[in-house]
Structure formats: C-alpha cells, structure tokens
Write a structure and sequence with these properties.
Two copies of one chain form a homodimer.
Chain A lengths: L1 E7 L7 H15 L2 E7 L5 H12 L5 H25 L4 E4 L6 E4 L6 E5 L2 H8 L3 E5 L2 E3 L5 E3 L4 H13 L2 E6 L20 E3 H9 L7 H9 L4 E5 L7 E4 L11 E14 L6 H10 L7 E6 L2 E9 L3 H10 L3 E14 L2 H4 L3 H12 L5 E5 L2 E7 H14 L3
Parallel strand pairs in A: 1-2, 1-9, 2-6, 3-6, 9-11, 10-12
Antiparallel strand pairs in A: 4-5, 7-8, 11-12, 13-15, 13-16, 14-15, 16-18, 17-18
Helix pairs in contact in A: 1-3, 2-3, 5-7, 6-7
Chain lengths: 391, 391
C-alpha cells in the first residue's frame, strides 16, 4: 500500500460535525492507503487560548504559551481518533513528543530538527490509522514546543518526507486560486502549480498554506495536493515544473499588516548591526532598500505589524532616528513565466502610471514582483492586476 | 525553607479571576516556603471534554480519553504559571510526564508507581514556583494516563511524600464538616480529624477529598490541611490521633448513586468466580452479604450506578438470575470513638426503629457503620443521626 499523510486544519475540524466529516474522508482513503493524519486545533481555539493568556499577562512566558496552545491539537487529535475507532477502524492519537517530533529554537517559533518515526511505523504495521498533533514537538530539555503560524502544514510535510508518503492538505477552500476569490470573484482555480510558485505565493500572502511546508516539500520532492475538506472536489496539485510551453503568470497575492520602517541619516551607523539586532529579537525583515543622498544615508525596510514593539525597542536602544508607517499591504504577482517573459515589470509600471497607483517599495525575485501600497487601495490593485493579466 | 505542596481543585481555578486569586495565595506562601502547586482542570472542563467524546462514540477508546482530558490540567497549569510570572515570581508549568509521574494500570484508572522528582528539584533550586498538572502521568509505553476521579489529590500527596513536604488542599469549602452543611445546616466544621476518620469519610461520601490521597498521606505521615481557597479561613488539619480523652463521633457522610444487586439461587455457582469476573471489569463491589435459606443461597452486593452496564454484562454472561435495585444511598457514621465506645450500633438501631427508617444493608468497620437506604429518605436519615449524636 502507498502511504498518505492527510492534514486537516482548524476550520476542517471546527466542531464535532466537521470531525465526523473528516473521519469519513480518512476512512475512505484508508481503504487503499496507509494513512497518517495531522491535525490542527479545532476552529479558532488557539486564538481563544492566546486571549486567555494575554488576559493574565501582558507578555506571557513563551514556554508556558507553547504548553497552553499545544492542548488544542491534543484535544482535536484525541477526539478524531475516538471517532475513527467508533466508526470501526483502529486508530491511535499521538502528541508531538509521542510522534517523535524533535525541535529546537525559540519557544513559539521552533524548527523541526528531526522526526523519530519508530512509534508511527509500529502503529502502521498494526494497521492503525495514526492521528498526530500538528504544530508541536519537544525540545532537548523535554519541553513542549510549537512551530509558529501554520506549523501544522510543516508537521505534515515533515512526516511525509520521513514516511516516504504523499501529502494532502485539506482546507476550507477548494484549492489554490490565481487570486483570492474573496477579493476578485472571477479568479480561476489552478489545477496545478509549481512548488516554487506556491512557495512565493505563500510568502506573499496566500494564506492557504505555510511557505516553510512548501519549501520542505520542494526540497524532498514530496507529492502534494491542496484540497477542499469535502472529500470530493478536485484540488490543486503541486508539481516540480509545468510543460515547456506553459508559461503564463500564475497568481496575484496580497499580504496585509505590512509596516514600513524608515531610518534617517544613518551615516555613522553600522547598518548590518541594525539587522543583526532585529534578527536576535526574531523580527522578520522583508524588503530592504538603502538610499544615499549627498552625505546622507537612509535605510528603509518592511516588516510585520506584530513585530512593531520589538522593532521600536531595538531601534530606540540603538539611538536611531526612525519613523514607522503602517496600514500597508504588499501586492505580488507570481509565476515561473517571469523567467522566460521579459517586460512583466514594465507592463505593471505602465498600468500603475495609467491608473495613478502609488507604491512605496518594489521588490523583485526570479518569479515574482511585489509592490508595497496603502492597504485601502490594495484590493483594487489586486483586481486591476488580475484583469490586466487575465488570471 | 520548608516545602509545601498546594493543590487547587477545579472550582478554585474555574475562571481567570479564580486563577488570579489562587496566584495571590501561592505568592504569599512562596515568601516563606518552597512551593510546588498541583492543579486540576478549570471548573467543569473535564466533564465538557468527556461530553464531546461521548457525542462522538458510545464507548470512547480509553487511551484517547486520557489524552483528551489531560489537556484540561495542561491548560490550567500553563495559565497559572503565566500569571505567576506576570505577578513577578519565576514559575514553570510541568505536565505529568515532565514532572516525572510514572504510572501503570488501566487507562482512566491508573495508579502512580513512582515520581521522578529530579526536574522539580532543579526548578526549586532555581527559586522557581513549580506548577504541576494533577491527575495525569505517563505509562511505560509513553502514553498519557489519568488517575481516576479525584486523582489530583493523590498527585499532590505523592509529590509531598517524595519532596518531604507538607500538603495543603485548597477547595471551595472551608474544611471538613461533621456532616455536609448543604444537608444539615447546623453541621460543625472540624478543626482536626484523624487520617483514619478522613479516609473513612472520603470513602463513605465526603466529596472534599479523594480517599486514596488520604491513605497515602497516612502511610507516609504527610502533614496535611484542607482549606478554603480564600487564603484566610482556618481549615481542617489532619492528625494521626486525637488526645486520649477526645472520643466523640466525628461525622455522618452520605454517598448517592448506590445500587444493590441481588443474585438468586446461587447453589451451583462458584461465588468467588462472580467477584473475580466483576473485578476484571473494574466494577467496584462494596458491601457483600450472603444468605442461605434451606437449600437456596442468595448473594447481594452494593456497587456504583456507573458500573451497572458492566455488572449486567458479567452476570448475564455467567447465566445468573439477578435483579438490580437503584436509587439507593449509603449513610455512614464515622469516628475513632467507636473503638472505645460500645453500643453505637445499638443506639442507631433503636433510633431507626423509633423513626421507622428502613435499610437494605448494613456494614461495619472498626471506625464506621454504614446503612443502605432509599435515596429519597437519605438526607432525612443524615439529619436525624446528626441531631442524635450532636454533631
């Protein structure tokens, strides 16, 4: 039998009815494959736990936050295994540490170092469906850790790598769209997408999947599919490359809660030191630009709204003269087509001039171009790009 | 510094405000003692989790039930540690397995085999308050186990034994009463009680504390106190023995949900076999009586309502002719005084005849007498006994 890792997110397990539907899809697959299931916490329960912690403390201790939120996946995994057993297929629920997820790093943002799959293999040999808590592991001290936002996707792909399995990500959308259908209702669902494109799209705001997980799948060439949690609708398959002739643009993504930090007059400052200190505080720095006017130097970078407090503290400690602009969004167009088609950037510039769209920053990669714009016009920019490139 | 294990039950942690109050009491104690805290799940959350499991399955797999309900204590321990840290005292939350609780037995009814306190000792050396999840441990397979009803009390006492600490049990009543004040409003609070009496009272229906935990405290002579969760009211201290002259009766307890099982005509049946089979199904058998009339034999025993289904299955498989009577309660009077005072049973018989009280079974121990009566008259019997013995 082939092996399949099935990942169900919070919205696909949000109540007991959803757990029963997930159970049906799993039982169907288990007829033809050896199945390991990775689960997130039910619905919005992780945020509810975080709200309780923040009601008790302005800066809750991160070690205990990990212990707290890990209860969410333990609960959904146990309930799903209970229902699978009831429905007639032997199933066993494993926590992160029982499933062998070893990790290291900062609490709340741990990285998986290895997965010791011995116990999972034992259960599979006994013809059991193994339900594993996503998002969590254990560190060398024996403490419970979590893998940061969307960590369950990464758990699923890491397991697929170690178990030599395919990976199916079940969500509440029917696959990957060229543009978020909530912004642009004419958006097309993609039957296939490449790992590289999906990685860019995920980094650039497509919330269906966590970019780290796509990167891992790409690195180990894990066959991957993103599907609706109804067990019927055809999803989006992730491929290594398209057929040679197929070279169109793939998608437009939007990422909200972007902030722009401008540091004035940095002539006496060691710039690498700024980014080193920001990295120590786990501030994600995205687009960096550096301008020199006469003998003045100015550095700007974009970051996430959630890092504003950490950013301010670092810059203040470094005695820098800075300002922060928020309510920004990053709109990106993605597609391997950019490699072979010249002039995409030029077409966008032309469009922006014609439509009088103002952007703060621009950033390009081999297969994407991103523009930082005011959040209030971001949806409109997405729609205009979608129409222009017929996505 | 002396060491203190403080146990907070579900009602003492039922919401964020209660967690803050518990935190205040703990911080006050931590000024003069090394403190380890044992917590139950918040409020009624264990039952809510069990309800979800039963909505998904008529007989939820017991291993997964343990994993499910253990999330309750993980949540309360993490939240309490988060608040202690916020309030300025370093604190760390440990799950059952991190705190070294080793266990063995049947899922849902595990027994503690040992507590490896190395990690707790490390945290105490670093002047941290250690918050430990009660009720749960790990078995030799690495699975999460729970210790059955009231298991958090047993966790607390077991830790006190290993840490050579005193043990304070915080509850929502202000100590141990001679009679449940909800039944008999004139009941007196006891300043002291002996381990033996408290053990009998707990077995016989006093719900404030779990009998296993008192047994353990008695065996290892752990100084123990039962207190109100307000941090002010004087509680009830548990002693090895009273002063010589102090020989009154201590309490009247009531235990509801008792069932009486009557097995007719057992002349061809190996009776020990019946109880062996019941024990295999973890049916708790309490009062057993055996009557022989001519060549007919009849066996009766009392058990718990929750075991009715298991009991029926065993007796039916053994082809026995039986009937079950439910809606019964067991009313018990307890006191080491019984050892030295004769005629307590005689006084009760006289009272029951005078008041026309019918009982189904009677059972005596060295320091208690129990009567099985219809539940609908049980409270009235408790009050009459309380008045008669001036409790």
């Amino acid at each position: 039998m082939e092996r399949l890792v099935m990942k169900f997110g919070g919205s696909s397990l949000k109540d007991l009815e959803k757990i029963k539907s997930a159970s049906d899809i799993i039982l169907e697959k288990s007829k033809t494959e050896e199945v390991v299931v990775v689960v997130s916490a039910m619905g919005d329960s992780t945020n509810e736990l975080l709200d309780m912690a923040h009601a008790l403390s302005t800066t809750p201790s991160k070690r205990e936050l990990d212990m707290l939120v890990s209860t969410g996946e333990n609960k959904s995994a146990a309930l799903l295994a209970i229902h699978l057993n009831e429905a007639g297929h032997k199933a066993v629920a494993l926590t992160g540490f029982q499933a062998g997820f070893q990790s290291d790093g900062v609490h709340g943002k741990n990285k998986i170092t290895d997965v010791n799959i011995e116990r999972i293999e034992n259960h599979l040999r006994q013809n059991e469906i193994v339900v594993v808590t996503g998002f969590q592991g254990i560190n060398p001290l024996g403490d419970i850790t979590t893998f940061g936002r969307g960590g369950s996707d990464t758990s699923a792909v890491a397991l697929a790598v170690k178990l030599n399995a395919k990976c199916a990500i079940y969500t509440d959308v029917s696959g990957i769209y060229s543009i978020d259908p909530r912004i642009y209702s004419d958006a097309k669902k993609l039957n296939v997408v490449t790992y590289e494109e999906l990685m860019e799209m995920a980094h650039l705001g497509t919330k269906v999947i966590e970019p780290r997980s796509v990167e891992l799948a790409y690195k180990f060439n894990v066959p991957m599919e993103i599907l609706l949690n109804d067990g019927k609708t055809k999803g989006t398959k992730v491929l290594e490359a398209y057929d040679m002739e197929d070279t169109k643009l793939t998608s437009v993504s939007k990422l909200d809660d972007v902030v722009l930090v401008i540091i004035h007059d940095t002539k006496d400052v060691n710039i690498s030191n700024i980014f080193l200190e920001l990295a120590k505080e786990n501030v994600n720095v995205d687009i960096i630009s550096h301008t020199r006017l006469n003998d003045r130097k100015e550095v700007t970078f974009t970051s996430e709204k959630s890092s504003i407090e950490d950013t301010k503290r670092v810059l203040t400690e470094l005695n820098l003269d800075y300002e922060i602009k928020d309510n920004l969004s990053k709109v990106s167009i993605v597609g391997t087509a950019m490699r072979s088609q010249v002039g995409i950037a030029a077409q966008v510039f032309e469009l922006f001039v014609k439509e009088d769209i103002f952007f703060y920053e621009i950033s390009t990669s081999e297969i994407s171009i991103s523009y930082v714009v005011d959040s209030k016009i971001a949806d409109d920019v997405v729609i205009k790009l979608g129409k222009h490139f017929e996505l």
